[in-house]
Amino acid sequence: MWQTVKNKLKIEQVSGRHPICVYQDFLAQGFVYNMVQDVMTHLNQTKKEPTKKINENRAIGLWKDQLIDIVLENDNKQKLHLFKKMEEDILRSVYLPRSSPRNKRKYKHHNKYKQNQKPSF
After folding, report:
1. I need a surface site. Which of 59, 112, 116, 117 has the fewest CB within 10 A?
2. Threshold 0.90, pTM exceeds
């Protein structure tokens, strides 16, 4: 959860210096996180193929891009149409989890910390 909030939603990037602006940005990011998780949970329960997982990065990006258009739309039917379109876009952005790891990495321990083994002057 915290990795999503910090790195994907970029909660540390605020739009102003005044405390009320920082607080407002913090609450807005919390709202976006809760809404994205709600939509992803709903879509995960209604999708046809349970093995596929929704890509959270893509879902957040689509949500941020299309939410303003949905909110600013006056016609309720058009709002519903835009929301359904966003859900379809999110459902299309899935990935298949790997069943097993590929090849194991081989570490060369003799030069793992090469910077620490420099000769002194």
Report:
1. 116
2. no
